[in-house]
Structure prediction request, 281 residues.
Amino acid sequence: MADGFTLDCAGKTLDLSKPRVMGILNVTPDSFYQQSRCSDRWLVAAEQMVNDGADILDIGGESTRPGASGAPTQEEELERVLLVVEGLAARFDVIISVDTSSPLVISETVKAGAGMINDVRALQRTGALEAAAQTNVPVVLMHSLVDQPAPGFVPVYDDVILQVSQYLMERVARCQEAGINRERLILDPGFGGGMFGKTPTCDLAMLRDLRRLHQLGLPVLAGMSRKSFIGATLGREAQERLAGSLAAAMLAAQAGAQIIRVHDVAETVDVLRLMQAVSEA
Prediction:
């Protein structure tokens, strides 16, 4: 079960004494799961997620799927997400997270009401550490390869959760050196292929051993929703991976993950509520 971390997300309190659900809201043209693309219907999609029980809405303006088209410029990414952040912050009493690696987007979206930064590159882009340090919101640090690998690349790990932990420990240290308080940091092992650098076997091993990541003493986010390792294991396309995603979400929550990042909010909320009820019975 979740540990009792409490985070200040731009004036909104995130209590992690039980698992929380982060809903994925992509304002990109090419995210891997087509139904998550909502550039022209973000308000309707967000309202549905809030009604379904999302604690956090994660807004993404850059696709990181394998084979994605070239990264947008910082200005293009900001144009995609800024009005969305402003609109959601004004309408809903939930925490707004921005899925970005760009210093400009970090700075401007926090000014606009974002209460969390979710960076798949763990603040490794030039200027990102400094931009995050100047805000006062929590930051998710993900393990990844930083850039998309060449086609045919196969990652090799002797002990995937250990090596992921070592990478994240180094990023935590760099954040602290830059003036980011340790209590603002959340860890994400980075499930998935492409720039996330995992094979399906690696992902399964990480999910099995996820408890070991808690040895670093920081909250853990798990983002596995409809990802390729579920498809490879079950022989399912992205639109057919709901059951596998829910199973993965429950396994991660049972392993102590405090934030579960998902496309399917209502179903995940039900799974976690039932798990919580059983533990409290």
Summary: The mean pLDDT is 92. The chain is about 40% helix and 15% strand. Residues 74-91 form the longest helix (18 residues). The longest strand covers residues 20-26.
